[in-house]
TrEMBL record, chains A, B:
This is Arginine biosynthesis bifunctional protein ArgJ. Heterotetramer of two alpha and two beta chains. Belongs to the ArgJ family. Substrate binds at residues 149, 172, 183, 263, 385, 390. Gene3D superfamilies: ArgJ beta chain, C-terminal domain, L-amino peptidase D-ALA esterase/amidase. The active site is at 183 (nucleophile). Its EC number is 2.3.1.35, 2.3.1.1. It catalyses: N(2)-acetyl-L-ornithine + L-glutamate = N-acetyl-L-glutamate + L-ornithine; L-glutamate + acetyl-CoA = N-acetyl-L-glutamate + CoA + H(+). GO terms for cellular component: cytoplasm. The keyword Protein biosynthesis does not apply. PANTHER family: ARGININE BIOSYNTHESIS BIFUNCTIONAL PROTEIN ARGJ (PTHR23100), ARGININE BIOSYNTHESIS BIFUNCTIONAL PROTEIN ARGJ, MITOCHONDRIAL (PTHR23100:SF0).
Length: 390, 390
């Protein structure tokens, strides 16, 4: 379903021969059939950002995007001017197919860094995808499959506003996931009647509390792109607060699905820090804990090792997060195994069998809180990233 | 040999029944027999620093340490006042054995966080170690074995100054290794005639370019301690520059040995960043690359994946390290596989069979440089930290 759930969008996913996996769907096209073509985007802050990111950042700057072409099988990152020309040529080809300016076409790529794309396959794939465009649930599903790399399942979202307008979305991402942003390509569509400015504000807020709060492996990608497109096809002008809330929900759902499909993960870990002096302080503490390889290994071994939680917490400078180490409590799956910075209930009381692990840290220093998500670190993660070229 | 290589020091390592591994040597004693008892220390900056760190930081503050007692098998961290009392009682016991004030005894512990030590075993072990004290090479070796946890081999250093004075040292550390500091206990001895002030200055400088530039897993410990003790037994006042250089060499050797024994590591990775505007800029870039799980997995799979190097480099903010992404080069084991921020020579040309991997990054932005060391990330690292309680 994904992006075609919102009215006014058609999509396709085809096997274009870009991926090294023969027959894998590797090229997706999403077209906004209007009447509006408002759009907003958020991109990686990596200084080695990929050619398609450079292109799309420019394309979305005026608030208008007519279509998005996305490929897996190659990131087109660190490819210099030839790479940028590939993104431009791809956009021009799609523009001529859908009857738009090249500047209204966004381009997204994901895969190995440092190699040019097989451009002939990309352009032929664009034509095939254009021929296959449909507004059906199946077409949306095809698109969500075509952007997968090490993902083991497609990740999509559908939400409906009170007055009948809709949001649809898809995302890919499994490894190279770190805050600011997660390594991922994401397209969210809506048929609400909203301006580009509204879209950008809603997207910034939604990304900030979702994709910017997940961390699979602390590695920031060169290609992260999140696009939000509005067709206005529902004819409904949504309540602004409801609109913002639903965009945030869509982002949160997709981010949660990335964690649920983190490379090799056997546990999804929610870390909530309460009792902080500010939200930023809570976030800094949560991120420090989420980044601990030792904790992530312990969780994969079903060991609620609170020593590795507090030792990570202890690396956050006092000026960033003021708290008294002797007043900190840590609950894992509801059992307070660390009390006043020391041992609490026995950790053997913690049931670690559920896939989802809840770590609740109370700094007892204030009223602010934040939640971040991460995955455990498993043999399978090492296997995926040591033994495969990706 | 280790700490007994310098004249004026005796040592012992005994099995005190602290470790869960029956019969393992787990308690070491190092005594400075003078005539001097000058000392300096550097400690973890972790806010959950362990009881022995709190004790020893206080003990070394006046520049005098007569003896150091070290145990593996338990970190005595996050153990509150009872833990601090254990460190105090241990120091008092050693003090009465060696005829000193408790304030002149340093205490170091390493092992699981959050549990008190079996104090009876520690105190009985202290007496047994005192009985076994000797200035022999074997006694020094015993001490270096007794502080090991997941270490697979003891790590020691011996250096000799021109005028006949000496430095000896031992360190433990294998996991929970991150800059500021590495997770480790380290005792360095010298028979040079030097003041506590000289010792502290030499140690600060030595640690800054060694233990603070290694990173096994980005996890900072609660127990890191580096002590430098001077007996003055050689009667030689060394040239200050030579003294500083030899202390730095001892730190560098021990830090390098930690990397060589990193948990589960199959490659030791040297990352040198040149062409930076400042040393701090070079260091920030080196640390960002050293922290990449994805790169560390790639290296364990013998894949010189430069995309993962530059994508990590790209996360360093421009105000921290100014450089132009299109001018960066990366050599792995001498082969320039990234040129001007894009693909260079084919990565199949890189010989990845040596254990030591050299990554040389030229930012082409200035004249400053820095080197950091890390390990690769292997199945064995996950196994050690998921499947064992440590």
């Amino acid at each position: 379903m994904s992006v075609t759930f919102a009215q006014g969008f058609s999509a396709a996913g085809v096997a274009a021969g870009i991926s090294s996996v023969a027959g894998k769907k590797d090229l997706a096209l999403v077209v906004n059939n209007g009447p509006l073509d408002a759009a907003a985007g958020v991109f990686t802050s990596n200084r080695f950002c990929a050619a398609p990111v450079q292109w799309s950042r420019h394309a979305v700057a005026d608030g208008h995007i007519k279509a998005v072409i996305l490929n897996s099988g190659g990131a087109n990152a660190c490819t210099g001017k030839p790479g940028y020309e590939q993104s431009r040529t791809t956009a021009e080809t799609v523009a001529s197919l859908v009857g738009a300016d090249a500047d209204d076409i966004a381009v997204c790529s994901t895969g190995l860094i440092g190699e040019l794309l097989p451009l002939d396959h990309v352009l032929a794939g664009a034509r095939a995808a254009h021929d296959a465009l449909a507004s059906t649930a199946e077409a949306g599903a095809d698109a969500s499959h075509a952007i997968m790399t090490t993902d083991t399942k497609p990740k999509t979202v559908t939400l409906e506003g009170k007055a009948g307008w809709r949001i649809g979305g898809m995302v890919k991402g499994s490894g190279m996931i770190a805050p600011q942003l997660a390594t991922m390509l994401c397209v969210i569509t809506t048929d609400a009647v909203v301006s580009a400015g509204q879209l950008q504000a809603a997207l910034n807020a939604g990304v900030d509390t979702s994709f910017n709060r997940i961390d699979v492996d602390g590695c920031m990608s060169t290609n992260d792109t999140v696009l939000l497109l509005a067709s206005g096809a529902s004819g409904v002008e949504p309540d602004p607060d409801e609109f913002n809330a639903l965009v945030a929900s869509a982002c949160a759902s997709l981010a949660r699905q990335i964690i649920g499909d983190g490379e090799g993960a056997s546990h999804d870990i929610r870390i909530t820090v309460t009792g902080a002096t500010t939200e930023d302080a809570a976030l800094a503490c949560g991120r420090a804990v989420a980044a601990s390889n030792l904790l992530k290994c312990a969780i994969s071994g079903n060991d609620p090792n609170w020593g590795r939680i507090v030792s990570s917490l202890g690396t956050v400078p006092p000026d960033v997060a003021p708290y008294d180490a002797t007043k900190v409590t840590v609950d894992v799956n509801g059992v307070r195994i660390c009390e006043n910075g020391g041992a609490g209930r026995d950790r053997s009381e913690v049931d670690m069998t559920p896939r989802e692990v809840h770590i609740d840290i109370d700094l007892n220093a204030g009223d602010a809180e934040a939640t971040v998500w991460t995955d455990d670190l498993t043999h399978e993660y090492v296997h995926i990233n040591a033994d495969y070229e990706s």
